[in-house]
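debug: dumping io for the single-chain case to check the tokenizer round-trip. Nothing else runs in this session.
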Amino acid sequence: MPPPCNSLHDHTGLFRLVSGIRDFAARAIAAGAYLGWSAEFLKYVETFADATQKYIKNTRICSQGDIDHLTGAWLVLHDFIKPVVDASALNAPGPLVRFLNMQLRQLSAFEDAKVVVGLVPELNYFQHRTEGLRNVLQSMHLLIGGPRFDMKIGFISLPYSVSRNLFINCILYHELGHFVFSEAHLWRQVFREVEKALRKAFRGKGIDKLTRQELTWVFLQWAEELFADLFAVKLLGPAYTFAAAELTSWMRRGSPASIARFSWSHPPDALRFREQIESMTEDGWGLGGDYANPQAGYIGDLAAIPEKRYEPPSNVGKLKTVFRSLITTLCQNVGAIHEMVGDVLVGAPNPHDDYSRNHESVMACFSHGIVPSVTRPNSLTESFRLVCPTTVLNTAVLFWLREMAPIYKFMSKKTSNPSSISDRARMEERVEAWAGKAIEDYLMLKNRPAKKMKAPRGL
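debug: decoded output
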């Protein structure tokens, strides 16, 4: 039963709701600095609010149906605003987000895309679908004549508790993969690749059409998660894998679960890390030798779990056999997901190339407490070379996971005790700060006109 209509009351109620949202966004912009795309979005909220209020005031043309549609639009927009407001420049990994956006815009069909980050109370990362938001706001533009929402924009949320941590936030690359998967409508391609195999998995199982559709959607979610993992490790490198393992280890301690069990929305860690290792190996990375660290052993153990130990979700009832068929189908077709990632990233540089040239210099910088913005030349006539942020991140994460022992030799023994947890925490923050500064320097120097950087005398 619809609520009773009271034109003046309903108009005023929506007017005050919009006023509250507008004032909230305006106060945020006035009080704090925001990354460019976040500020752009909050400015849009202000402008859309002004247009909405102007339209509401003109009650001669604003009908009850218009009020209903406008209210629905603001209810959709409402949930996107506060996470963005909370993620001011002081509460977000700014250098990482700016570099991530730069990499995104270098991809074909994403030259005008941008990603906005927000903070959430959950200890997890999310990519929020925007198709519904864009459709609603476009229809409102046609209704009230306000600003057009034509931005190809992605909303990624990270936990408020780790908003300034650089290393763990390499997981943002996974959420970027979800954004690319969604914007490029890659689920259609996945379905075409496996449609025949899915029909075979369902054949003779006595499954009705609605259940088949639901199970197909579960399969597509599994495929998308693997795509996002492989996209992240291909675009960034093992820094993503190590960050994902860190988050996984936290969550597993708080809520133990089978490392080989599928859920309704995610493949198990065993399969996810197995495919990441395969992708890294193809690109020249590895988990032994120069990359060895305690986290690598944990990842390798998970990846080594055989497929026969993979389990369907725990609450599938009579569909257990069908789910086992779905799992087999996914494992048999995972190569198609690798190829899809390669197609999306065609032309993108392999981060291992820059890493192989510069990681020793970058590691030496971290070991001596130096910001690794450029590599040191071998002679006075050779130019400095900018270090790609992917190399900075991958090297910094390895330095962090290897206990950071070298740096303690250059710090005061009174404030830097290797066995002190609080000193260790401060040291990690310093290393993250050096890495973040190196990324900032790269972004600043990369955008300047080309100029040869000569080594100063005495080097």
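debug: round-trip ok. Residues 351-446 form one domain.
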